[in-house]
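Intended use. Records like the one below are meant for learning the mapping from a protein sequence to its folded structure. Do not use them to infer anything beyond what is encoded.
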Amino acid sequence: MGDHSSIEWTEATWNPTTGCDKTSPGCSNCYALTLSKRLKAMGQAKYQRDGDPKTSGPGFGLTIHPDTLDIPRSWHSPRTIFVNSMSDLFHHDVPESYIREVFRVITDTPQHQYQVLTKRSKRLAEVGPRLDWPANLWMGVSVENSKYRFRLDHLRRVDAAVRFVSAEPLLGPLADLNLNGIHWLIAGGESGPRARPVEESWLLGLRDQCDEAGVPFFFKQWGGRTPKAGGRLLVGRTHDEMPERNVLLA
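Structure written out for the chain above:
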């Protein structure tokens, strides 16, 4: 089902697939994996399939849920919807035909704004050019340290109305980012009992690069034991910039 979201940059979540597996260091303390274990123990039907114990875990095997596809059609008031907060739409086990079905729902519900985020940018670049990109879909990639800057190059290959970067959890400096064709950048620290610290200089470096490139910068959180533990102030102020709606026409 769809749910109200506590994520600062969205309003609701919709999970037409669930489950995933670890693909890079940003996945190490995955909140979705932890939550899936609890949901499995509670008997939630969507989280009964176990994944590879080395890369995933209880209740986190990749599973598609066709019965959830029509949920956004029942939401008549406009919402900003994060697609697959508990999965990755471009996971190699998600059939391309199913991605197309998800995109069709997005196209058919133009009252909503959708956000999709992936770490599997190679598959995004492979499949993306064959897809019909809805005007109300924002596509993003996660880039947690400099080793994964190549994901921006993959993102630039797709014809999404808005292309964005999530530097969260930020695990190292991201110098010399090529922000050409990028419309938004989200940065933040990790939360949870094993949270890895983020350094202010890394965040300021991203803020300054965004300023220079004219890219909206959103600072989500410092993180810590809980998402709100460290607050959201960066050098004394919040940064809540979002892409302008008219970027869709650019």
